[in-house]
Amino acid sequence: MIVRIMGEGQVRLDDVHLTELNKLDDELLAEIESGDESGFRRTLGALLEEVRRLGTPLPDDALEPSELILPSPDATLAEVREMLRDDGLIPG
Question: Residue 70: beta bridge partners?
Answer without folding.
Answer: 5
